[in-house]
DNA sequence: TAGTGGTCTAGACCACGGG
DNA sequence: CCGTGGTCTAGACCACTAT
């Protein structure tokens, strides 16, 4: 049996995850939800509080409740530049598109992503430069059936991650963090040595059960790390 | 202004973090808290629900609410063996104590840990073996003023992490994840090559504002990874 | 069966902040 | 000012489960 506040929670979550309600959109005020669900205000409040806890909405007195800004990339945001850990501001960020190809998903990758082998994809490779030094290489696959508008976007001036966030702000994501040795190509791009330890963040995101994008972001291990208090949550 | 349910939440959290209430201990039933805080049952319930959300207590009908088992090591638990990702059971775990020394904290490390330079510590090094292969090397510092009983423990048969969990089950922790190249000693112990990419988890834990332990766990990068959905939480 | 938590109601008063 | 969320009350009924 699903309780009333759980139903309210799930209904609103679904609207946000599906993109029906986008960041900044106002959600119904409490008394409207009270009328819609025929329940008391406390019950509505419990559902909304849970949504705040998850970071999906923000509530403001007088003005109402709104869909929050996406937080799906927060993990990546927390990557810290070891050499300049102290100075949290004043970094110069730059971005270079290395390759952009429309292809079909190969057999191996299709299996890895649990998607159809012939699905049309956009394959991107780009380099992130911070303070003049290569910071990360990003290898990304965008599923064109899920995000058809990516076909018309050149990604010459906007990083794919940022573009996707604007296009598909909320999604479910799975992360994997690995240590890998730099292969020849990676080492060359990151201006480091072949075999050097790199920290690799892999993320696959879904919306409405369909894969939106798959990305591997590889950082030079001597220059970057994750920090914080991590809580793996149930998948 | 702190609300009633927040005060209840913080009071109980403090009892658990301080070790006053230990895992498995029963916490007062709702009507007792209602009497203690002179508030309604809903207010108590809200505080207890928040504690459940954080994983600090479990609530059972008829029997009451209890301090949950510690979860501070959950991040580490989620390390997955890449080669045997499929088989989630049937692993053979072994543990070897390599070194055990009582020393005083050096200048550099003291700064790193934000502790006094002459603090007495127990320095441990051990090797974790899973299915016959070196899985991780653990380099640990235990602050003897915070955990004096560690002085009498040989750690010959019980892993320090497990012992500490029994001794100091709840604490605040900070994690850092890095990729490092194996140095000669590490490579030898992990039976891999020098310079090989390794995944290093660093964790410092505190209880009542004092450092309890600092540990670096280094895994061979080709055999291990973190997986899951990570939510870095505000420090 | 009885004690416990799970959920809900129909109000209430207050704090905040935009107009 | 007044609409909004933040918190709280004093009950209520039900579900679960140890005994």
TrEMBL record, chains A, B:
PROSITE patterns: HTH_GNTR (PS50949)
Any GO BP annotation: L-histidine metabolic process
Origin: domain of life: Bacteria
Keywords noted in UniProt: DNA-binding, Transcription, Transcription regulation
InterPro entries: Bact_HTH_transcr_reg (IPR050679), Chorismate_lyase_/UTRA_dom_sf (IPR028978), His_ut_repres (IPR010248), Tscrpt_reg_HTH_GntR (IPR000524), UTRA (IPR011663), WH-like_DNA-bd_sf (IPR036388), WH_DNA-bd_sf (IPR036390)
SUPFAM superfamilies listed in its UniProt record: Chorismate lyase-like, Winged helix' DNA-binding domain
Xref: Pfam families: GntR, UTRA
Protein name: Histidine utilization repressor
Record-annotated HTH gntR-type domain positions: 2-70
Gene Ontology MF: a single term: DNA-binding transcription factor activity
Taxonomic source organism: Rhizobium hidalgonense
């Amino acid at each position: 049996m699903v309780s009333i506040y759980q139903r309210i929670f799930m209904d609103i979550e679904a609207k946000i995850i599906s993109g029906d309600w986008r960041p900044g959109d106002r959600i119904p005020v409490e008394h409207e939800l009270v009328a819609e669900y025929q329940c008391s205000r406390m019950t509505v409040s419990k559902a909304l509080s849970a949504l705040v806890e998850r970071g999906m909405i923000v509530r403001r007195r007088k003005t109402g409740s709104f869909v929050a800004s996406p937080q799906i990339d927060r993990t990546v945001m927390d990557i810290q530049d070891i050499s300049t850990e102290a100075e949290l501001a004043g970094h110069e960020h730059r971005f270079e598109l290395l390759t952009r190809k429309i292809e079909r998903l190969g057999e191996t990758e299709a299996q890895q992503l649990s998607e159809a082998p012939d699905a049309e994809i956009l394959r991107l490779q780009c380099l992130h430069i911070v303070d003049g030094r290569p910071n990360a290489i990003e290898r990304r696959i965008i599923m064109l059936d899920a995000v058809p508008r990516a076909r018309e976007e050149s990604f010459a001036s906007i990083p794919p991650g940022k573009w996707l966030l604007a296009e598909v702000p909320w999604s479910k994501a799975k992360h994997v963090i690995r240590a890998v040795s730099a292969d020849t190509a990676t080492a060359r791009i990151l201006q480091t040595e072949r075999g050097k330890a790199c920290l690799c963040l892999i993320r696959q995101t879904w919306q409405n059960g369909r894969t939106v994008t798959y990305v591997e972001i590889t950082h030079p291990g001597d220059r970057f790390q994750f920090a914080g208090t991590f809580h793996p949550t149930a998948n």
